[in-house]
TrEMBL record:
Family label: Belongs to the SAT4 family.
GO annotation, cellular component aspect: membrane
Transmembrane segments: 28-49, 61-82, 102-126, 138-161, 181-206, 218-238, 258-280
Region listing for Disordered, in residue ranges: 345-365
Compartments where located: Membrane
UniProt cross-references to InterPro entries, sorted A to Z: Rhodopsin_dom_fungi (IPR049326), SAT4-like (IPR052337)
Membrane-related topology note: Multi-pass membrane protein
Residues of the Rhodopsin domain: 45-282
Main location: membrane
Protein name: Rhodopsin domain-containing protein
Length: 365
């Protein structure tokens, strides 16, 4: 294996030697540990909310995709924690095993796009199950195909940085070629940001047409738009990626962008799970006895629209009368009345009608 010093000019190498004791290891440990805890917590709340909705745990494809994504997140974070042993977070003169450090980078390059793609597809599957519009569902399918093509391209370009791969860490290999990291970063990150923005904006026109109050529409849209922070992080990562690919000291230079990538996956897990938290929000509101005008224990918002996940659909039709059901849709309404019924010889009648001792009742429903 060639000497890493051969990868740098004399001035650059001497500069790194002066800072050989600098380390970003504590940053890696703190960010990755927090990401593990938060990602598992967001997933746990999602599964608990699913259980609240039906009384038992039943998962659909959006849940399984989210679970797979969190698994990839665990791989990314553990991979970076292991990378500390091989010099991740240190300047190049402190790196003793350049080959292992590059392999750590390759594993992260493969699993990060997988985690992001899983969360994107999870949201698209959720959209498909909620909104009945045929045109919208075709848009979900088209975007899903684009996401799958994106993740394949990102994984291949992130793993096959050089052909042969040994050229990454061994400067004595003169055959083959390497793809500039800047080129890869621009192509994959630009398409990544495009899909994030498109997926976030897709349901907005349908939510606007829901028959509910403006405040509830804003709250439902805000739930989807949690992912807006993910887009901001993706944009912020782009210049950091370009900088890390130009200096050669990637064990040190890659850390700011890498930590943002970990934060990006973690917040994306929340963004993909937030629309499913309706039953959980309802339970919290009931227990706190909060008087909410929006979604909560009284219904009419996220808690209603997303309770069933794959089985619920938001209707665009007019509200129906209490007790009427017109299909697999959910009607959001602010108008409801409470009545007390009494069982009279197997039939249910309003309490006011039973005070005279009548015996005729409604047949049990």
């Amino acid at each position: 294996m060639a000497d890493p010093q051969q990868m740098f000019d004399k001035e650059r190498w001497e500069s790194m030697l002066r800072h050989i004791d600098d380390t970003r290891e504590q940053t890696i440990i703190a960010v990755c540990s927090l990401a593990i805890v938060l990602s598992l917590s967001f997933l746990g709340l999602r599964l608990y909310s699913r259980r609240l909705a039906l009384g038992y745990l039943k998962l659909d494809w959006s849940d399984w995709l989210c679970i797979g994504s969190v698994f990839c997140t665990m791989v990314v974070t553990i991979d970076m924690l292991v990378g500390i042993k091989y010099g991740l977070g240190r300047h190049m003169p402190a790196v003793k095993d350049l080959r292992s450090l590059y392999l750590i980078l390759i594993i992260a390059n493969a699993t990060h796009p997988s985690a992001m793609a899983g969360l994107k597809l999870s949201l698209l599957v959720l959209y498909y199950s909620i909104f009945p519009s045929r045109r919208f569902r075709w848009c979900c399918i088209a975007m899903g195909i684009f996401v799958m093509l994106w993740v394949i391209a990102s994984m291949v370009s992130g793993v096959a940085l050089c052909i042969p791969i040994q050229k990454l860490w061994d400067s004595s290999v003169t055959t083959g070629f390497c793809v500039p990291l800047i080129t890869i970063g621009l192509a994959t990150t630009a398409s990544h940001i495009f899909t994030d923005i498109a997926i976030l904006l897709m349901p907005v026109p349908l939510v606007v047409k829901l028959h509910t109050s403006r405040d509830r529409k804003v709250l439902i849209i805000s739930t989807f738009m949690v992912g807006g922070l993910v887009c901001a992080i993706s944009i912020a990562r782009l210049p950091l990626w370009m900088n890390s690919g130009s200096g050669g000291d990637f064990g040190w230079d890659n850390i700011p962008g890498g930590m943002l990538a970990v934060a990006e996956i973690t917040i994306s897990t929340l963004a993909a799970s937030a629309p499913v938290y309706g039953p959980l929000i309802s339970q919290v509101c009931r227990k706190s006895k909060a008087n909410l005008s929006g979604p909560g224990a009284n219904g009419g918002g996220i808690a209603d629209v997303f309770t069933q996940g794959s089985k619920a659909e938001a209707t665009r039709g007019p509200p129906v009368a209490p007790g009427r059901f017109t299909g697999r849709s959910i009607t959001v309404t602010d108008e409801f009345e409470l009545h007390t019924y009494h069982n009279v010889q197997g039939g249910w009648r309003p309490l006011s009608d039973t005070s005279d001792g009548g015996t005729d009742g409604l047949s049990p429903g």
